[in-house]
Amino acid sequence: MRITELLQDATIDLGVKVNSKEEAIDHLVDLMVKGRNITDREEYKKGILAREANGTTGIGGGIAIPHSKNKAVTKAGLASMTVPDGVDYEAMDGEPSDVFFMIAAPAEGSDVHLEALSRLSVILMDPVFKDSLLKATSKEEYLALIDKKETEKFPEEAAKEEEKPAVQEEKADDGTIRVLAVTACPTGIAHTFMAAESLENKAKEMGITLKAETNGSGGAKNVLTKEEIENCDGIIVAADKNVEMARFDGKQVLQTKVADGINKPEELIQTILDKKAPTYHHSGAAAQEDSAEGESVGRQIYKHLMNGVSHMLPFVIGGGILIALAFLVDNQAINPANFGKNTPLAALLKTIGEQAFGFMLPILAGFIAMSIADRPGLAIGFVGGALANGGYTFANIMAYDSAKAVSSGFIGALFAGFVGGYIMVLLRKLFDKLPSALEGLKPILLFPVCGILIMGVVMIAVNPVVGAINTGLNNFLSSMSGTSSILLGAVLGGMMSIDMGGPFNKAAYVFGTAQLTVANAGPEQYAIMAAVMAGGMVPPLAIALCTTFFKNRFTESERKSGVVNYIMGLSFITEGAIPFAAGDPIHILPPCIVGSAVAGALSMAFKCGLPAPHGGIFVIGVITNPVQYLISVVVGAVIGMIVMSFTKKPLNK
């Protein structure tokens, strides 16, 4: 399906003026409504915003391609607009975006629109063509430009067949394809094809023959052949998800992010040509394990841990907030010992929340193990996490009493996840020696039975030790008071601002949420979670305040973006500060860290407590000492703003 078949006059608007990313999205969604492509505007917009939350679709070069595959879409379609003055769309290159294409794809049915999308991604890589779109004065001219460029880049199949011999002869004259590439992103819609086109264009400029395989939502296209892999100099794998790596065994392989394929094509190609990429050795294990080649041990551990945490968080947040709501709607006076379940509604909320919470540790362990050993590791890690949560030991398995068992908690689940994953890796290596006739038995019988048995024995054996460590840590935290607890709050609050979504931020947040999993969690544990959230709310708020009261420190687009950070900060979305921190880390990060540390320390000093793992201002009703908590956050944000006003100097007129 051609691009011009998905565009229509009603969904094109030229010379638009918008002042923010949100306004740009709203305008494009309105065009979709005019084109009758969607039935529910808000549902479709929600899908667009959810995609943006996973990473900007502002791909750089002035281009943005927001998209959503959504149940509100009745037919596949495109909406497009030009914004001559540009608008800050949080693009990858930090520059304003001025040419927009929004894609609407039905949740069910054919993916025929993806072919048109891949074409769109390719033709927009031509800066001359992109500028011609920006200068178009009528919708007819706009459509004609797209149609002409699409025909030029993608002639009809018959014409392609006629040209194939010439292309093959050109490659034959060259000898072989020197560089191969594989591109892939989690959604597989735009970035996959942009990276491929960027690499191919740069290779042409360098006089190098390059072939790129795209792993998009419509499946793998332009697949690399065995002969091409054998004869090439090396392979660039620009991917944010797992791709088939076994075929590259023994070849020079450079693994990187899909964004690097778009923004650093020459650097990647030159690394292959200079033979500086590592030689890839396939282990016969999981794709995740293979992708660890060349990565530091710390980076591998972080990736495995984050895989577990990312899958665990929905259970933490959903269950935690439901439990917090149960306390909010309950009447403690009825029976203080049964607080949270004294009324039918409270009992309903708390029961559901507790069940969700019960899955946290098994999910954490299961997906850590899966990250290490692929799907066979999931069941092993899941069982290990459940045993850690239950506190099973050889001393109590004959007469188990959950009330007396000592759970090894979060630490035990971490142990189970990593050990379970490597148990599976070991089993895979051991079973490689079995006859090939037994290959089919491995995933359905040998791996789960042997893996779960070994994992169970290991966890039951170590639970007493890990449980004692977990209990000791909880007792230590419970004993902290005065200066020591305030210092802990300052450290945790500051960590939330050091890298905003990076390892330090995640470590602090995971530590805070882990306290909520403690059996009979109380004020000490809730205080830690409160300090963590306070620290995370400050950076966006400090930046928003600074853009409001010290306007001369920021550009016009930054001031407009700063307003959004009021909402982000109050919602405990620290990532709202990332565009500012990334653009000027030296002057933005230190004030944010100071403000967050102050907020965390004050929250501890005021003995504020939070039984929910998220929610920001919207869970203020369940926070202990809510007024003091608001004071902590506001004071931290104001201090951050004041420090920022000194570190960030006025802009030159």
Plain-language structure description:
The longest helix has 39 residues, at 441-479. By secondary structure, the protein is an alpha/beta fold. The chain is globular, with a radius of gyration of 27 Å. The chain has 4 domains: 3-153, Mannitol-specific EII, Chain A (3-Layer(aba) Sandwich); 174-282, Rossmann fold (3-Layer(aba) Sandwich), CATH 3.40.50; 297-477, no CATH class; 483-647, no CATH class. The chain is 59% helix and 9% strand. Helix 16 runs parallel beside helix 18 and helix 21 (523-549) crosses helix 25 (626-647). The protein has helices at 3-6, 21-34, 41-53, 113-123, 127-135, 139-153, 157-174, 191-205, 226-231, 258-263, 265-273, 287-290, 297-329, 344-358, 360-373, 376-390, 409-431, 441-479, 483-498, 503-516, 523-549, 556-570, 578-583, 585-605, 626-647; strands at residues 12-13, 58-60, 63-64, 67-70, 77-87, 97-106, 179-184, 210-216, 219-221, 234-239, 253-256. The strands form 2 sheets. Strands 1, 2, 3, 4, 5 and 6 form a 6-stranded mixed β-sheet that branches. Strands 9-8-7-10-11 form a 5-stranded mixed β-sheet. It is built from 25 helices and 11 strands. It is a multi-pass membrane protein. The chain crosses the membrane at residues 312-331, 352-372, 378-398, 405-425, 445-469, 476-498, 526-550, 562-582, 588-606, 627-647. InterPro entries: Bacterial_PTS_Sugar_Transport, PTrfase/Anion_transptr, PTS_EIIA_type-2_dom, PTS_EIIB-like_sf, PTS_EIIB_2, PTS_EIIB_2/3, PTS_EIIC, PTS_EIIC_2.
